[in-house]
Write a structure and sequence with these properties.
The protein is of the alpha+beta class. Among the domains are: 3-57; 64-169, no CATH class; 338-469, Sandwich (Jelly Rolls), CATH 2.60.120.380; 471-551, Immunoglobulin-like (Sandwich), CATH 2.60.40. Helices cover 28% and strands 27% of the residues. It contains 14 helices and 21 strands. It has helices at residues 19-34, 42-57, 91-110, 118-121, 166-178, 193-206, 219-223, 244-247, 249-252, 254-264, 268-273, 283-291, 293-308, 316-329, and strands at 3-5, 8-10, 72-77, 80-85, 126-131, 145-148, 154-159, 340-342, 363-370, 375-383, 395-402, 408-412, 414-415, 420-427, 433-440, 457-463, 477-480, 487-505, 510-525, 532-539, 544-551. A hairpin with a 4-residue loop joins strand 18 and strand 19. Helix 1 packs antiparallel against helix 2 and helix 5 (166-178) crosses helix 6 (193-206). The chain starts with a strand and ends with a strand.
Length: 552
């Protein structure tokens, strides 16, 4: 005998394992019934058909370790049962919630090629417990999340106030569909743990990619660019400060998965299918192999450049919300957004970041150059051949130039091999922000030591304008006397339509700028200059010449 209540089947001593047998019995009985003689009443047939239909639709039974049916109310639909305290009436909200999570289930199973959680496969409703307001379940000390009960089945505990938070709910439901993963490399531990949380956050954000708080932890990705891609709770080094920005890193990486699916255009299946491919490789290596080394590395560099460029692939409201989250929760002393800030002079030779700031595997550093002049810069990279544990290094670089008019230009460092590269670019005085981004992307996907492997390098930024090797003299322009006391005379070979003269201090600050028209000889009063070395730049429509000018 069975009883239907809220579409729930009570089978008494029957377990779901016997459900197939019970169905078989009903099938045989129905077959016999359909062969009866014509004088049998039609109503009998209809009654049995209704009974059988109801039974077949009741596919799941209850298996619960937390709820008390005398003190709790529940509602079932599809493969889910939601429990809450009798003292509250959440039937309207739960009705809506069930429809929503059934949509998530259908998407996970039919579009993302995932599997039901083990309890559902065994024939039991998936338990979801609503708690809060001092209700029945509050004594358990639950928050929002998925756990495992004494039967070995996952369960979801959800605070009442999250009814309308579709992103958070979808995140936790996705965890249920990760539960039956058969890929050892995707375990919720060590260097693979990040992916479980990042992909769940990606799935949550997928419900509304424009939501203000869809990527709320993302600011940590530019403030701590040097940490390894796979940093998580479970591989946290003893040397790391225990703060918000380091602990949320695994959640923040949902933004990378979003970039892959929404900006690069890879299939969402790529994100989810790895859980059920029996893989021993880590998620980071899986993605690398799925896209191929060239595309994956280029995508990684494009992603970090876009984040450096004020997260130009998400909405402004999201960017502002992310920054606000950082200001609210982050430790301001643990900020490596710009590993170093340089002025007009560049690095003044080769520069190596401190070891606490330098790149790990699949991470990056950003160097900011503050520019005020029209000039040229050369950016160089000389990476160590191997990391600190001996793994071969691989680097790429990008240069982001931002103009005061809101525009930007990206340049790729021209690599001569896996660790060395250079690029010379021209900039104007309105190109005030220049970012040199160095990405470390070795064929290395899992740590071999408690402390993460570092991949050191040196960089050099040279102002070509101030580089002594670039100084030259020319017959068609003369500047004298040198050294000067007060008046500088500039003579050209012939009258020139337009001549621009600029004077810079030894540290690159512009002291003087003037444009002259239809002149062959020009006199300039520099009596106000302080004694010392300056740089004079004379430009025509043909070329520019730089003079080292001494004032005494």
């Amino acid at each position: 005998m069975f009883l239907l209540k809220n579409n729930l089947v009570y089978l008494g001593s029957f377990s779901f394992v016997n459900l197939v047998l019970v169905k078989q019995i009903f099938t045989k009985a129905l077959a016999s019934l359909l062969t009866i003689k014509s004088h049998m009443k039609n109503i009998t047939i209809v009654a049995v058909l209704i009974l059988f239909s109801e039974f077949l639709h009741a596919q799941y039974s209850i298996k619960d370790t937390f709820a008390n049916p005398l003190e709790c109310t529940y509602m079932t639909r599809d493969a889910f049962i939601i429990w809450w305290d009798n003292d509250y009436d959440y039937s309207v909200e739960v009705d809506i919630l069930l429809d929503q999570i059934i949509e998530y289930r259908n998407e996970c199973l039919n579009e993302l090629n995932m599997m039901d959680p083990p309890g559902v496969i065994d024939g039991y409703y998936q338990n979801i417990y609503l708690h809060g307001d001092g209700g029945y379940f509050d004594s358990n000390g639950w928050g929002n999340g998925v756990g495992t009960d004494s039967n070995g089945y996952p369960f979801y505990t959800m605070p009442y106030n999250l009814f309308n938070d579709i992103i958070t709910v979808a995140h936790e439901i996705f965890h249920l569909y990760q539960y039956n993963s058969n890929s050892p490399g995707f375990a919720y531990s060590g260097d693979s743990q990040w992916y479980i949380e990042a992909s769940a956050n990606w799935y949550g954000a997928r419900q509304d990619f424009t939501a203000e708080r869809a990527f709320i932890e993302a600011e940590s990705l530019v403030k701590l660019p040097q940490v390894p891609f796979w940093l998580s709770f479970d591989n946290f080094p003893n040397t790391y400060p225990e703060n918000w920005q380091r602990y949320v890193h695994q959640y923040a990486l949902a933004l990378f998965l979003f970039y892959l699916t929404e900006e690069v255009g890879i299939s969402p299946n790529v994100i989810s299918e790895g859980f059920y491919m029996g893989l021993t490789e880590t998620p980071q290596e899986y993605l690398y192999n799925q896209l191929g080394p060239v595309l994956y590395r280029n995508t990684f560099m494009d992603w970090i450049a876009s984040m450096t460029n004020d997260f130009d692939f998400i909405t402004e409201n999201q960017r502002v919300a992310n920054e606000s989250e950082w200001l609210t929760y982050a430790d301001p002393d643990d900020d490596n957004e710009y590993t170093e800030v340089f002025d007009f002079n560049g690095t003044n030779g080769w520069f190596q970041p401190a070891f606490e700031d330098i790149t790990n595997a699949w991470s990056y550093n950003t160097f900011k150059l503050e520019n005020t002049n029209t000039t040229s810069y050369t950016f160089q990279l000389n990476g160590d051949s191997n990391g600190t544990f001996g793994s071969p290094s691989y680097f790429q670089g990008k240069i982001l130039v931002k103009n005061t008019d809101g525009s930007h230009i990206l340049y790729d460092l021209l690599m001569t091999d896996d660790t060395n590269g250079a690029k010379t670019i021209d900039v104007s005085s309105s190109d005030t922000e220049i970012y040199y981004i160095i990405g470390s992307m070795p064929s290395y996907f899992e740590e071999i030591d408690q402390e993460f492997q570092l991949f050191p390098y040196q960089l050099k930024i040279s102002n070509v304008f101030l580089d002594v090797s670039a100084f030259t003299t020319a017959n068609f322009i003369k500047a004298y006397p040198n050294p000067i006391e007060d008046i500088l005379r500039v003579e050209l070979e012939e009258k020139t339509h337009e001549i621009k003269i600029e004077l810079y201090s030894i540290i690159g600050h512009k002291i003087f700028e003037e444009t002259y028209f239809n002149k062959k000889e020009i006199e300039i009063d520099f009596s106000y200059l302080n004694n010392g070395v300056n740089f004079l730049k004379v430009s025509t429509n043909k070329k520019s010449i730089i003079f080292k000018l001494l004032k005494k």
